Amino acid sequence: MNKYEIAVILNVNLEEEARIATIEKVKGYITRFGGTVTEVEDWGKKRLAYEIQKSKEAFYYFVKFESNSECPNEVEARVRLMENVVRYLVVKQEA
Predict the structure, then answer these.
(1) Cβ–Cβ < 8 Å for 44, 81
(2) Whole-model pTM above 0.70?
């Protein structure tokens, strides 16, 4: 099992319930494809480095998980299509 982290940046206009539902959906994708979520970090609202979709701020979440090498690709494919996600990035953590 490898360790991964997905950074998910959500639209600033989302209500708290919608943000929680979106992160739960991401966690669901991870577990569906054989991964295990180990930690979820909510960094809250932060200023973006540059304007995205006419927004200067967004909500940042970091989900750490362990899985085989195919799970991150499947999760990326699903997260890419999610409406509320402004940006995302999956990285493999060093051992």
Answers:
(1) no
(2) yes
**Which domain CATH number covers 82?**
3.30.70.60
Q: Per the structure, how many domains does the chain have?
A: 1
Residue 58 domain boundaries:
2-92
Per the CB < 8 A criterion, the answer to whether 49 and 30 are in contact is: no
Q: 12 — phi, psi (to 5°)? A: -70, -20
pLDDT, tens digit (0-9, with 9 covering 90-100), for 73-95: 999 999 999 999 999 999 999 86
Q: pLDDT tens across 3-21, in order?
A: 999 999 999 999 999 999 9
DSSP 23-51: HHHHHHHHHHTT-EEEEEEEEEEEEEEEE
